[in-house]
Known about the structure:
- The protein is an alpha+beta fold.
- It has helices at residues 8-13, 32-51, 66-79, 82-88, 109-113, 116-119, 150-166, 226-235, 279-282, 298-302, 329-339, 367-379, 397-400; strands at residues 145-146, 171-173, 185-188, 191-204, 207-216, 220-225, 240-242, 266-274, 288-294, 316-325, 349-350, 356-357, 362-364, 385-388, 393-396.
- Strand 11 and strand 12 form a beta hairpin.
Amino acid sequence: MKRVRKTLDELFLEDDPFGLLDVKPVRAAAGDDKSRLFEAFEEICQFIDAHGHVPGEGAASGRISLSERRLKERLRVYRADQAMFERLSAVDRHGLLEGIRAQTVPQSLDDLLDEPLLDSPEPDIFVRRHAVLRGAQPDRISARIPCSEFEKFAPLFKQCTADLISGVRQSKRFANEQEIDVGQFFILRGVMVYVAEVNEPHVRNGKRNARLRLIFDNGTEGQNLLRSLATELYKDPSGRRISSASIGPLFEAAASGAMAPDSLGVGRVYVARSMSPDPKIASLDGRLYKIGVTTGSVADRVRGAASDPTFLFAPVRVIREFEVLNFDPIRLEAILHRFFSSARLAIDIPGHFGKPFHPKEWFLIDLAVIDQVIPLIVKGELSGSYYDPDTETIVSALDAGE
């Protein structure tokens, strides 16, 4: 037998013996809304009892607390509603709602604008509070971009790093923006920065400023203001200035043979060629040289070369010797070695007791370049230059930045 489904209307018309459909709406307690209104109004009255004035109308009404401002706004709403007088007159013990005007529908634009909020002698809506004012913005904000000619500056960063390791340069806490100039290195947030150019120098607010071209050792560059760089260095707890590799006249060539009686020291720079029979060493003859410094006789220094790992366990032939005065031999040797560090021979030889030895005084360079470096040191003109092993030439930092 086929079952006939009833419609929804038919289901609702059926008898409801259990009263399931007799649902009555829930009514709110009659006194709830009124009680809450009385409590809110009583809070205003209690404020007057405690402070002796209406919220917002005290002697310091220009600077009132957030809670007082909230009560002031609540009272304003009550006073603008005629019905509130009828509902709250019984509890208005301070006469706060006496004389309020009946609420009317505005008939014109003037009626619409004639509101207590706009008529108030201290319209809070027009008072700016807790707003952050934007400071003066820079004329141009620089963004870092890839440096298209970074290969020109990469050797400078490499040389500066070598100078820091050897002690020729030192890193110091940044403390003076006047130290920012072309050719200077800085460390900002762990990145080494090189000042390649100083452009558009000017004075603003009584302080020197300029547009800098900065090269970063991560291969980017930026056009930053001098004072902007200084501000960032001041803010960075690890911001550093790297001292210049200013060598100065560390020694004088004793061409005349005259020795000053009060000389701090007499020493010698020597350049030697290895006479090793090892085919790997012999094949580099004419390009491999040892640059050393000694405070004694060069002949004495090389006499035991065949048993000295520093000399590759082979005799050498001294081909250059320079007598020098008034110098720190350790620093002088560090300067020469760091200058030619990009051309240092990478070789390991078995030392005494089979322990590997890594000689650091042998370089693959042209002898003519060594002859050029010595006079530059004498004149104090080596600072800011580096040796380019690809072209086998001495490159000035200023030339590299062009």
